[in-house]
Amino acid sequence: MYIDFHNHIDFYSKDKVNEVINIINKEKIITIACAMDEKSYIENIGYSNKSDYIIPIFGIHPSKVKNNKFNFDKIENYIKYAPLIGEIGLDFYWVEEKETYLNQIEVFEYFLQTAKKYNKYINVHTKGAEELVLDYIKKYDVSEQTIIHWYSGEEKTLEKLIDIKCLFTGSVDLGYSDKTNEIIKKIPINQLLAETDGPTALQWVNNIYGMPDEIKKVYKKISDIKNVEVEEFKEHCSKILKEITNFNKK
Ligand SMILES: [Zn+2]
Please, how many CA atoms are within 13 Å of residue 154, restricted to the half-sphere of its CB? Predict the structure, then answer.
């Protein structure tokens, strides 16, 4: 069984999404469908009604924070209901409006605090703010329930995130980026997971519209780098998924 720990089903174009769901069902790819915001979460819930393999999760992506005010009571209900939280985090690289960064931090802190309260794992975006994300994860004591999505920051921050036992997802740029290959080499296999990040990630990497079965290539590349059998890596990922979904029952 393949598990895609970070996808965006609502990113697929309307004419492709049925094919996407068919692939997920046929290949039995358990797919964690991250939300960008409330609208995206509701859309993903709709898609999950067509597949037992799609798990919609709730979060507000840093690029959607802007200067918006959020209804945190409503958000808390979504968090209680979702098996894990994401996509949340900070982005000081792609998001250029510096005047929105404080609001990003405020929203991120709210999610960390609430993840701690309800024992939920979090799927975290760190682009250009890796060291600050590290500080906040430590501040709210959530490192052992954190999945760092597609890490691309500095090595010294990576080492600290590994030390505090975060999990990490390898993504579709494996095999295309020497830096990413080096990052995956550094992360112990028991802290590694895999993702596709929706159709646009692979498009960004090499102009291919990424379908859900791209996850197989990511598993193969990670397994090759870590010198393990794909089956062994798949078993490890299934074990982690169980831990993640049982975590809030503790
Ligand atoms: Zn994403």
Answer: 10
**Spatial contact of 178 and 152, defined as CB atoms under 8 Å apart:** no
In degrees and rounded to multiples of 5, residue 142 shows phi and psi of: -120, 15
34 CA from centroid of ligand 1 (Å): 7
The alpha carbon of 149 and the centre of ligand 1 are apart by a number of angstroms equal to 7
Q: Residue ranges per domain, the chain?
A: 3-247
Q: 3-247: which CATH topology?
A: TIM Barrel (3.20.20)
DSSP alpha helix (H) spans, the chain: 17-27, 38-48, 72-81, 101-118, 130-139, 155-163, 178-186, 199-206, 214-226, 230-247
Ion ligand 1: residue ranges with CB closer than 5 A: 87, 197
Compute, in angstroms, the gap from residue 204 CA to the centroid of ligand 1: 13
pLDDT digits over 201-229, tens only? 888 888 888 899 999 999 999 999 999 99
Q: What tens digit of pLDDT does each residue of 105-120 get?
A: 999 999 999 999 999 9
